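Troubleshooting: if your tokenizer reports a length mismatch, compare your output against this known-good record of 168 residues.
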Amino acid sequence: MPRPEDHPDYGALDFTIVGGQHLAEIVKALEAVGNGELASELKSALRKASRPMVPKVRQAIDRIPSNHDGTLRGEMKKATHVQFRSSGREAGITVRVDGRRMPAHKRTLPAYMEGTKPRWRHPVYGNPEVWVQQPDKSFFYKTVTPFGVEVKKDIDAVAERIAKKLTP
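Known-good structure output:
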């Protein structure tokens, strides 16, 4: 599972469900066997299985306590998405709060909010001489991790369906 430390420039929070090389090989093999219908069925099932995580992560972001207008939470919600790749070494499903979709000066804030980057310090509003350390507000991993078991069941079910179609 990629962690923000792997992408320090972006501060993204990632949760990858299906790992790389094997998924790419499976999709390629399914495309070679038929007209692409089986590969499409697999890709569609994987997307469908991961889709419920995004609203749950956005709900968790909404529950982060704030003493301000909620702008950061809104930006983080907009940056939350599912990414699906069926080829290459990063093939898989990734649920991400993507720092690259945040304003330039806030790209690492999702990782600081989660606590995967140490020490989130900032000046007290209106006083650049006084700095405080902000405690993390873990929301991401505890929200998406329970989905791993359910998504694995969904993936196993679609694999069974496809295997039955392939056996004569």
